[in-house]
Structure formats: structure tokens, C-alpha cells
Amino acid sequence: MRPKKNPQKDLNKKSGTFFVIGLLLILAMVYTALEWKSFDPINQIDVALNKVDDSIIEDAPIIELKATPPPKPKVLPIEIEIIEDDEPIIETEVIASEVDTDTEIVDPSNFEVIEEPEEVKVIWTTIEEVPIFPGCESAEDKRACFNEMMQKHIRKNFRYPELAQEMGIQGRVNTQFMINNDGTIGAIQKRGPHDVLEKEAVRILSKLPKMTPGKQRGSAVKVSFAIPITFKLE
Asked: Which residues form the TonB C-terminal domain (predicted)?
């Protein structure tokens, strides 16, 4: 007859519990081993081989540099040169021009007063009698004849400067000249795009003939006349 085991003392009954406990202990040991951190020991090493004694430290000396002042300029004594002047002094005699009882009184009627006529200048648009260009003496409208003869004179004497042609210079030169009270051509004023064209315009106007002067209130006067001269390349 086989002996019967006591069920309360059967070890196989709690084997599962012991297995789980053992597994947990092993896992805890493995986790602790993996997470364990170790550090190298910290060694404080003094890299200085020699320590300086604080008692021998001295402050750096302060050196003061003094600039040498520049030498004072030498003051030379003033030399006074004495020149002997033996030339005689010429005294100027001043004659007084004050009036006294012996001064002769001059009669004003003995003087002849010459009145110089005031020079009158009139512009072309307000002159009463315009200057007459040679050839317009018998024309009814002397203004229109004057302008026509001026255009003929410019076309006849016109010459395009070679330098202006080479440089491609063109434009209008505004000119103004004076017809004096004796019929001659006076000062010529000009303004244009280039000095070459201005000189050519002056040359053309300087060849104008002598004219019959213009009149204002029956007296010959100076008359200013303005005309543009156009230079255009074909």
C-alpha cells in the first residue's frame, strides 16, 4: 500500500509563486546592473610647479617722461641804420585861392554853355521812322522792305562753318545789333548753341551796309534790331 502525501506539505503547490518571485529578483538584478553608473575619481592636481610668495610681489614703477620744451627763438636786436642826408629840402609853395577884396569877379555871361544832346535809344517796334536799308528808299512799307533785304543779305553771305558740319553742330543763334544814329552797325550781341555758330552770325551781320538812320520826333536815334539766324544740317 502506497503512502499518501500531506497536501499541505506539497512543495509543487507553490512552485509557480516561487518561480515568479525568482524571476522578478533576476530582472531587478539585471536592471540594477545595467543602470549602475560609476564615475572616475576627481584628482585635483596643482599645475603650478612653483608658487610665488605674495610677500615678494612689487608694484610696477611709474615712469614719468617730461617733454623738453622747444628752445626759445632768439630775439635779435633791432639795428637802426642812420643815413646821412645832405640833400637840400625843396619846399613846395602853396598859393592860396581864397577870395579877397582884390579878386576880380567874372561875369557869367562871358561863358558859353554847350548842351550835349542826350543819346536816345529806341527799339525797332516803337521807332517812328525805321532805318532804311539801301534799296528800300522808294518802298511804301519800309519795315517790310527792311526785313526782306535783311533775309536776302543773310542768305547771300551765309556760310556753314566746316567745323560745325564735322561736329554735327546746328541750332539757332539769336542776334541783336544796333543801328547807330549815323547809319553804321554798332555792337552785335549773340547767343547760340556753340561759339562757332555765334562767330559766323557776327561775321554775317558785320557785312551789313550803311543805312539811313531811324528817326524819333524828327531826330536821328539809335535803333536796336533783333533777328535769329538758324543753322540746320541737311
From this structure: 145-234
